[in-house]
């Protein structure tokens, strides 16, 4: 095999690996970004940028692939949340969850206000606790969160608690269960 | 036994199995910890409710198609570094980041007719669609390296200076947390020519199902000569850690990269400035925002464009060493960079540091 052919075959195998990684992780990466942005379209934009970045710089077969993607999704979406344009956007349109539609309008308004304030507070928070909270809320296990952020699994509880305590102070009503 | 920590109690909220052993026994008999557990549990549930969102429905196949057609590397006009091959990491990757930032990212479409040599920098907003449209331009002709970029990693500043003909920049004071382990890199000058072809452009556009604006008279067969480097720089951080590592902090980009490059130049004897700029901006997929920004800049032939993804990164104009510069990123420490042009060189300071730290390093760079 000459050098050119070998290069092509490496590229082909790399592309297949990337497609497998994409198929396995895309929904979860979108889920993480959507958790932060509460906007499925913007979340897909973020997810696609994250995959493009990954593909540009890393091997699709690297063991750290999923962990890298999870972390990048959290950081990229939190960055968007911090972006100037985003802050100017006054309204926070979120579709209501099942079960919330029956709430009285006053309660719904309070819940939406709290969701908006929570995301503002999330944008101000230090990157690490914010990312821990987002990844955990997106359904990652403690072990997966630890791997994504490169912290010890023993720290996850502490970081989660810190993030939740900070956020809890920022929202005043509508959160009692 | 001491009271349970907040972290332990928080974990018990999520994991019923954690409520076993000595910790569980303590909790069962300690009213104070029970009260704290209740508070922590309430907070966790409140925040979970506020963070809940309707699930995003995704079409994975369609999304993959979109991503698969995105360009793999940014520089347009085919200036894709041979160094970016998958085999070339991780050491080279860091230098690609450093030297590419200083020498390469920039050149592409700012080529303004007869002679382009930047003496200042400007951030321009760029969308994914812009990147795709610009990358498409690389198929409108033939790229030839007359002098290929040859990046070299050297253990000492002296060798890097020999390769590039310039001294690597010296950082006056490293921010706390940045490793003092330093690796040098250098690249001699590289030269490429790009020859436009109306036939290739039409074929490339047809393959994408797009209609092109008409190529201006004289552009078919016209050649741009692009010169980049020489460049020299250094990376702070231990680059030799084993990869892949389960601990992903170790595959972070290095903490700090500092590099300088002789300003890139683009020359052409056949294409006029105005023609090239309007042809590029007329490409399908170029956003209105990018068009407006470029057109608003009076003389693009002396401006280095730093593409900043819209809503993804933030950028602002700063003064560095008495000249205009662009600062990217923010103050969270996730990442920031400063780029400026002075004395015929493009300078870059970048890393996982705060923006204020990056600006401080830039101002004290020698």
List the helices and strands and how they pair.
The complex is a heterodimer of chains A (177) and B (366).
Chain A: H1 3-37, H2 40-57, H3 65-82, H4 84-88, H5 105-124, H6 127-137, H7 142-149, H8 156-170
Helix pairs in contact in A: 1-2, 1-3, 2-3, 3-5, 3-6, 3-7, 5-8, 6-7, 6-8
Chain B: H1 6-14, H2 21-29, H3 31-51, H4 60-68, H5 91-103, E1 115-116, E2 120-126, H6 128-136, E3 141-147, E4 152-154, H7 157-164, E5 182-187, E6 190-196, H8 198-207, E7 223-228, E8 231-236, E9 256-262, E10 265-268, H9 273-281, H10 288-296, E11 303-309, E12 315-320, E13 323-329, E14 336-342, E15 345-351, H11 355-363
Parallel strand pairs in B: 2-11
Antiparallel strand pairs in B: 1-10, 3-6, 4-5, 5-8, 6-7, 7-10, 8-9, 9-15, 12-13, 13-14, 14-15
Helix pairs in contact in B: 1-3
Briefly say what this structure is.
Chain A contains 8 helices and no strands. By secondary structure, chain A is an all-alpha fold. Chain A has one domain (about 5-170).
């Amino acid at each position: 095999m000459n050098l050119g052919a070998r290069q092509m075959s490496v590229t082909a195998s790399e592309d297949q690996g990337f497609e497998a990684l994409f198929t396995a992780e895309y929904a979860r990466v979108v889920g993480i970004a959507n958790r932060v942005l509460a906007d499925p379209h913007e979340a897909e934009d973020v997810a696609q940028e994250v995959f493009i970045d990954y593909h540009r710089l890393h091997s699709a077969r690297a063991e750290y692939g999923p962990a890298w993607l999870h972390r990048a999704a959290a950081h990229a979406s939190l960055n968007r949340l911090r972006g100037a344009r985003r802050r100017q956007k006054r309204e926070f349109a979120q579709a209501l969850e099942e079960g919330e539609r029956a709430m009285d309008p006053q309660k719904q308004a309070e819940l939406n206000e709290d969701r908006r304030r929570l995301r503002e507070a999330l944008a101000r928070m230090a990157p690490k606790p914010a990312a821990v909270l987002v990844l955990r809320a997106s359904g990652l296990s403690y072990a997966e969160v630890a791997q994504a952020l490169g912290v010890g699994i023993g720290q996850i509880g502490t970081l989660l608690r810190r993030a939740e305590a900070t956020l809890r102070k920022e929202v005043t009503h509508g959160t009692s269960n | 036994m001491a009271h349970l920590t907040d972290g332990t109690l928080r974990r018990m909220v999520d994991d019923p199995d954690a409520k076993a052993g000595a910790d569980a026994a303590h909790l069962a008999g300690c009213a104070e910890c029970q009260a704290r557990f209740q508070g922590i549990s309430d907070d966790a549930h409140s925040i979970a409710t506020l963070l809940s969102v309707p699930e995003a429905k995704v079409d994975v196949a369609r999304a993959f198609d979109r991503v698969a057609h995105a360009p793999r590397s940014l520089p347009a006009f085919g200036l894709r570094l041979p160094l970016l091959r998958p085999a070339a990491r991780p050491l080279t990757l860091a230098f690609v980041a450093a030297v590419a930032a200083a020498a390469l990212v920039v050149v592409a479409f700012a080529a303004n007719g007869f002679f382009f040599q930047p003496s200042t920098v400007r951030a321009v907003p760029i969308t994914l669609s812009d990147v795709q449209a610009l990358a498409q331009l690389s198929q409108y002709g033939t790229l030839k390296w007359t002098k290929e970029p040859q990046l070299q990693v050297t253990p000492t500043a002296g060798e890097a200076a020999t390769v590039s003909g310039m001294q690597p920049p010296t950082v006056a004071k490293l921010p706390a947390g940045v490793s003092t382990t330093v690796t040098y890199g250098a690249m001699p000058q590289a030269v490429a020519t790009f020859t436009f072809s109306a036939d290739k452009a039409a074929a490339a556009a047809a393959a994408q199902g797009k209609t092109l604006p008409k190529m201006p008279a004289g552009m078919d067969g016209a050649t741009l000569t692009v010169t980049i480097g020489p460049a020299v720089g250094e990376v702070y951080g231990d680059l030799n850690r084993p990869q892949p590592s389960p601990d992903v902090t170790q595959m972070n980009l290095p903490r700090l990269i500092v590099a300088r490059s002789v300003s890139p130049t683009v020359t052409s004897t056949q294409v006029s400035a105005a023609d090239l700029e309007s042809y590029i901006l007329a490409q399908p997929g170029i956003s209105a925002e990018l068009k407006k920004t470029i057109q608003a800049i009076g003389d693009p032939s002396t401006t280095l464009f730093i593409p900043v993804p819209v809503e993804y990164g933030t950028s602002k104009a700063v003064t560095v060493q008495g000249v205009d510069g662009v600062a990217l990123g923010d103050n969270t420490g996730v990442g920031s960079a400063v780029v400026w042009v002075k004395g015929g060189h493009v300078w870059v300071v970048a890393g996982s540091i705060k923006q204020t730290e990056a600006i401080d390093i830039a101002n004290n760079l020698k």
